[in-house]
Amino acid sequence: MQDVTVTSFNVKNLIGPDQEYYKFQTYTPEEYAWKADWMADQLLALDADVVGFQEIFEESALQAVIDETTQRADTLNDAAQPDKTKKYRKKAIFRRLESGGYHGASLAFAPNIADEGIPGERRPGVAILSRLGFASAPEIIQDLPEPLVIPFTPLRGLEADDAGQFTLKRLSRPILKVKIPMGGQVVTVFNCHLKSKLGEYIKPAGADFAPEADLTDYDPLGRALGALRAATRRMAEAWVLRQAIVAELTAGNPVIAMGDYNDGEHAVSSEIIAGERPFKNYGWMLRHDAEHRADRYSAEENAQITEAVEQVRLRSAEKLFVRKSLRDMVYTSAFGGVFESIDQIWLSRHFDPEFDGRIGDMTYFSVLNDHLTDGSHPEAPYNKLASDHGQIMAHLRVS
To answer: How far is CA 113 from CA 33, 243, 262, in A?
Structure first.
């Protein structure tokens, strides 16, 4: 058995100093130093084996934070770990106090294809750091080999051509897929950052900005349409991730999917990624080909359908923890008085305690969110220089 910790960490715009990543947004050297220092402290506190990062503009900036974390771990170990002359050096407490650092760790960075390096118009990517290495070359999903075309069903009385469709050719941010050895297994890990809830507004040709961006001429319907575009894109991106997950599960591979979903567990986009929950008893349900009111699925078909759904469904690590501990105070985002979890770690049934064929268990789930405020606190801008997301970590024991 091997104990493995897996963390999702949205760092909030990591880039070097004096670089305009979004319009008029830069870090002074002092602000950048503070941010890098805070990140190194968080990584040291997490001490995770696998970390999925979101909002990374520069791999070099992330590597510098990782190197600083390792240096701090070495310094801490020198002070906190007894040397060979101490008789008590083998006590279990010192194994707990030892910090792993990231000597020899593997880092995979997925830059955003849409990032052309234009000041004020930068686009972030994602990364995965692994002490356990990678079993094969990392893969990046962003530009789709074939456009995803989502046709809509025509309503009764309309022709098929009247229904419309949505087409997706590129994800707003890349999905990073890696294979990581854990225990005696190889687990497929996905890290994603789905489209945010910020509205998408179309700027007319020759205009300086989209009309909906002018809040002095508030357009409620235009703003709502922008939110609709963002939600549609987010759900389509969730389906692309779901497609990759199902391919791994169908091949029999354990899966962990993590990242900034920009939605809660019960949002449609999250449910697309996780897969549908099986109905309690399909024997109650009218058959798809029913000719009479008594045409229901048989007991054998009920078992077949339930297994087909369960084998490709993911489980929320947070909810496995809540169910085990009776706690319900996990949140990773705070805004305007609303505290919710939009950063998530999902596990295939290979880690479900109720699955006979499981390869491991989740023993604990933790979150670092003391730095979060809902924006009303006087220190909120300062705290958001760190990150506006909490960090979540699943503690796994893998055979």
So the answer is: 27, 21, 20
Q: Give the DSSP letter string of 276-336.
A: PPPPS-GGGSBPTT-SSTT-B--HHHHHHHHHHHHTT-EEEHHHHHHHHH------SEEET
Phi/psi of residue 297, each to 5°?
A: -70, 145
Q: What are the two backbone dihedrals, phi and then psi, of residue 220, each rounded to the nearest 5 degrees? A: -65, -35
Residue 52: helix, strand or coil by DSSP?
strand
pLDDT band at 378 (very low <50, low <70, confident <90, very high): low
Query: CATH for 2-275+312-398, among 3.30.830.10, 3.60.10.10, 1.10.10.10, 3.30.300.30?
Result: 3.60.10.10
Contact predicate 170/143, CB 8 Å: yes
Contact yes or no for 100/132 (Cβ under 8 A): no
Which parts of 72-138 are beta strand (E)?
A: 106-110, 125-130
pLDDT of residue 228: 96
Tell me the whole-structure pTM to 2 decimals.
Answer: 0.91
Question: 29 pLDDT exceeds 60?
Answer: yes
84-128 confidence digits (pLDDT tens): 777 777 777 777 778 889 999 999 999 999 999 999 999 999 999
Give the per-residue pLDDT at 387.
Answer: 82
**More confidently predicted of 254 and 392:** 254
**What are the boundaries of each domain within the chain?**
2-275+312-398
Write the CA distances from 300 to 220, 241, 355, integer angstroms: 52, 31, 19
In whole angstroms, what is the distance from residue 396 CA to residue 261 CA? 21
Q: Which pLDDT score is estimated for 376? A: 57
pLDDT of 6 > 60? The answer is yes
Rounded CA separation 70/9 (Å): 17
Q: Are 133 and 106 in contact (CB under 8 A)?
A: yes
Q: Note whether 254 and 181 are within 8 A (CB).
A: no
CB 387 within 8 A of CB 343: no
Average pLDDT over residues 319-335: 64
